Amino acid sequence: MKSKSFKRVLRKAGLRDIRYHDLRHTYASQLLAHGEPVTYVSQQLGHANPQITFKVYAHWIPNKSQRKAVNRLPSLSRGLDNAQVEDLAR
Question: Quick one: which of 32, 34, 36 has its CA closest to 55?
Fold first, then answer.
């Protein structure tokens, strides 16, 4: 997709102006962070092989201990008011 066309689509959708590459990177990162297989993400991105995807995005693939920590997050915020939770997020 050409840059002008992409920007027009963003405007029509009411989205902020971002680069296509940034959107693509966010898409891949989120898929991997949520446990999708590297092979699937590689196919989605059109990479020649999964090794390319792994090399670029390996840091987004959570290991088991990281996943456990992330899964505990909602329970950690119980008992805090919204302002306290926002302060922790900063």
Answer: 32
In sequence order, the 6+-apart residues with CB closer than 8 A to the CB of 7 are 17
Token couple for 9: 């689509």
What are the two backbone dihedrals, phi and then psi, of residue 77, each rounded to the nearest 5 degrees?
A: -90, -5
Name the token pair of 81.
């008011």
What residues have CB less than 8 Å from 29, skipping those under 6 apart? 57, 60
Distance CA 62, CA 39 (A): 16
- One digit per residue, the tens of pLDDT, for the chain of length 90 reads 678 888 898 899 998 888 889 989 999 999 988 889 999 999 999 999 999 998 998 888 877 666 566 566 655 545 555 555 555 544
